[in-house]
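Record Hydroxyquinol 1,2-dioxygenase, 342 aa.
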Amino acid sequence: MAMSEASERENANPASTASTDTEVLPICNETGYRAFRAGGFVLRRDEYFARISWPGGTHVIPVDAFLRAAMRDVSWGFFYGVVNFDGVFGTINHYGEVTLFAGAFNDAYRNARRDYQQRFRSDALMGLLKDLLGDWTNQDFDPFAAPMETGQPWGRKNGNNDAAIDRRRVAARRMVGLPGDAPLRTDEAGFPVNRQFADVAQDVPDVEVEPGFENEVSAFNLFAYLSRSDVTWNPSVCSVVGDSLFCPTSEEFVLPIEHGNDRCEWFLQLSDEISWDVKDKETGKPRARVLARAGDICCMPADIRHQGYSTKRSMLLVWENGSPRIPEMIANGTAPVVPVTF
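=>
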């Protein structure tokens, strides 16, 4: 089960006072785009920029970067912890509720008391962001694709690309390829081998199953599966054992967000390389630069934010512990922010 489905159902609080105050505003005659309001936040776009305002402040993000970040936030169900669209704007997942913020993890904004945040019910904010993506994404642009695999997001309103933004994230219940579970990717299903993975072998493993275990035993070629990914920076839940989630993904260009962890997160670099910028979660101050090459394993601590860069499309296996108890355990000190202390 996907994190957003399991955790939100387990943690939703029916007595919560989190806001549902969201609104789709009229179309701008000049650009053709709608504006959107979530409490005190108003989000508008023009030909080049997403423009965000709140009581006492404004912020501008290039619209391509904003759409790529918003696409991940929606697809991941607000993900684990903090999704920083950039150094100012983003969301915090409380699993059933979500905080929309400006400057909450930025020293300059906090010190000047210009930070602002509001808490919403997840379903209310999710609905608004889905409407925003549908309206702001033009027909030539795919927010999930690498820049060389899609058109441009610029200009006035020009159609839509619902097929791209309505993709369902792969979220296997047990393992990809098992009967009744998430299917394998094939040419026939519309998943050709990506241009940068043309050399990846497409061998299929032989599996001999004892009678009676046909629905329990399976195997698939993970490299071949990832070579057919039509999206970037979008971990797919490919196997599940209890709270242990294996989430492989293909990466090209820039991770559109700075992910602020609320738990430790393990990365196994399967091919090529990714450069990671690691910053302090609360302040955004740089802490490390990590170059991960094929075969490298690293753990991102629970008190950082990270953003990756990959020129050659690469394969990455992300291991997540999806337990909903971990954020509280880290907050009260019963779980560490690092897996091992040297």
